Amino acid sequence: MFNNVYRLTGVRQIERVTTSTDLNTPGKVIVRPTLMSICRADERYYTGTRDKEVLAARLPMALIHEAVGEVVRDNTGTFTPGTKVVMIPTHAHGHDNLIADNYLRSSTFRSSTEDGFMREYVTIEPESLIEIPAGAQSTMNAFLEVVSVAVQAVRRLQETMINRQDKIGVWGDGNVAYMTAVVAREMFPDSELYVFGKHQEKLDFISFANTVQIDEVPADLKLDQAIEAVGGRGSEAATNQIIDIINPRGAIVLSGVSENPVAINTRMVLEKGITLAGTTRSSREDFQTAIDLVANNHAVKERLELLVQNVKHVTEIKDITDAFDEDLTMNWGKTVLDWHM
C-alpha cells in the first residue's frame, strides 16, 4: 500500500514523500492519525533554530510527536479496527528493569531521531498504543503526550522527595507548566499548590492553585518540593529562585529544556541538602495515568480543554505550514491539527 509521509526538508519547507507500507507486517498495527498537536520542539525544527549539525543529521524528517489516531489494521490481534488510540513517541529498542524506556540511550524518539506522526498511516508496535475510552475522548487528546510528560515529572518528584509535602511549587506559566500544575493538583490532593510565573494573563487561567508573580514572592513563603517547568533562557533564574525558596532537604525536578548550559547555585544546594532530579519525556505507564486522569475526573478534562486555542483543519501541505506559522504567534495554548491527509 502506498503511504504519504510529510517531511520537513528545510526551513519552513514541508514536502510529501510517497513510501510503501506492507499491510501484513507481522507484529505491527496500522494507525491512521486523526488529531495532532504542535510542540515547541517541532517549531524549533520548522524554523531552523536547532543546532545546524542537528538539522543536517536529522532532516528530512516527519515532525509531530503528539498525536492520536484510529486503528485501521492490527496484525497482532490486540486492537479491533476503529479503536481510538494514543500513539507513544518513545520507540524502545531494548529494556532495562531499573531504567524506564524514556531514559535509555538506546531508545529513539519519533519526530526527533526518527520520523514523527505526520503521515497518512503509521506502522507501529502495539505496545506503543493505548486505547482511549469514550469518556476520555476529546480534542485535547491531541496533546495527551504532554500530559504524560507532566505525569512523569510529578512521579519523579514523588520518587525523589522526602515525606514532606505541605507546600508544592511549579515554576512556569506556559503550556507544560500549566499541565504539570493540573496533574500535580490531582497527585498531591492534600498539598498547597503554588504556580510561579511572570505573565499574569497566563497565570489567570489557573483557578485551582495559588499563583505568584516571580518578582513578587512573599519573603516568608517557603516550599517543601518543586518542579521547574520554565525551560530555555529562563530556566537558570527559575532554578536559582527555587533553590532560594525551598526548605532544606527539598527536591527539585528539572523538566524545562534548555539549549544552553545552565549555571546554578550549587553552594546552596549543598548547604540545604537539596536533591536535583532530571526528567524527560514519558513512559507507557505515564500515558495510561494521563488517560485515566482525563477519563475519571471531569475537572481535569475541562482544565486541559482550555489549552485548545487553535484547531486547524488539514487537507493540504499549505494547511500544515499555516498551522505552524499561526502557532508561532500564539501567546498561550495549543494548536491542534485536525488531520485529513
From TrEMBL:
UniProt family annotation: Belongs to the zinc-containing alcohol dehydrogenase family.
A Pfam family of this chain: ADH_N
Name assigned to this protein: Ribitol-5-phosphate dehydrogenase
Alcohol dehydrogenase-like C-terminal domain: residues covered: 220-295
Cofactor list: Zn(2+)
Lineage top rank: taxon: Bacteria
Record Gene3D superfamilies: Medium-chain alcohol dehydrogenases, catalytic domain, NAD(P)-binding Rossmann-like Domain
Domain Alcohol dehydrogenase-like N-terminal, residue spans: 26-133
InterPro entries reported in the protein's UniProt record: ADH-like_C, ADH-like_N, GroES-like_sf, NAD(P)-bd_dom_sf
GO molecular function terms noted in the UniProt entry: metal ion binding; oxidoreductase activity
Keywords associated with the record: Metal-binding, Oxidoreductase, Zinc
Protein's UniProt keywords contain Metal-binding: yes
